[in-house]
Amino acid sequence: MTAALHLDSLSVVYDDFHALKDVSVSVERGESFGLVGESGSGKSTLLRAVAGLAPISGGTIRIDGEELKGSKRSKVFYRRVQMVFQDPYGSLHPRQTIDRLLLEPLAIHAVTDSDKRIARALDEVGLGNGFRFRYPHQLSGGQRQRVAIARALIVQPSILLLDEPTSALDASVQAEVLNLLEQIRRDRKLTFVMVSHDLGVITHMCERLAVMRNGAVVERLSSQQLVKGAVQEDYTKNLMIASKGFVKG
């Protein structure tokens, strides 16, 4: 079966800094795949390269077997692949209502029945129509991230790129948003690629993961292997120790 997302020897270079070094990753359709590592390891750069937000200096990206050319992405790509960013405070335009924020991607893709789509998207993320004409500053952090998820889902993509989607939220709200994402993935049969520094989040949300360090993948394993402590690299073991409450007793 053709992978939903396949990266082969992907490299990203800024001036003389190699942010990604020959990274190869394959994510199956309907899978939730995790990327973990310390800050600066290249996790978010990988997502940004896929989304066309980082310059690619080498390697290939394939979506459902189709190779992407260059860094520029087409409208067709953004109907298939959407990204949810880390910061719900910075990813929403402060002077636009939620209605306007959700209408914009529909207008870009010339999608009709916008009223029904907006109402359905808000309902799916647990907000409802009462939030439609509010502004972002009138919402909590968790509510803003739900809007960001609704905006990503409204064009009905098959792949979601999730860049630390709950790290800016309070712990209690994190769990709510993660459960929402998992429910949406099951209902829509979506493919997730999730970046997180929190190993507990990754093992809860993802079946498999890649461990990154200095722009390269140093280990690939299943979440079950991580939970059992069945890891090979000292770097991965140190990540487990640094992740509070995660170390297997």
Automatic annotation (TrEMBL):
Residues 5-239 form the ABC transporter domain. Keywords: ATP-binding, Nucleotide-binding, Transport. PROSITE patterns: ABC_TRANSPORTER_1, ABC_TRANSPORTER_2. InterPro entries: AAA+_ATPase, ABC_transp_ATP-bind, ABC_transporter-like_ATP-bd, ABC_transporter-like_CS, P-loop_NTPase. GO terms for molecular function: ATP binding; ATP hydrolysis activity. One of its GO terms (biological process) is transmembrane transport. Belongs to the ABC transporter superfamily. This is Peptide/nickel transport system ATP-binding protein. It comes from Rhizobium aethiopicum. The lineage of its organism: Bacteria, Pseudomonadati, Pseudomonadota, Alphaproteobacteria, Hyphomicrobiales.
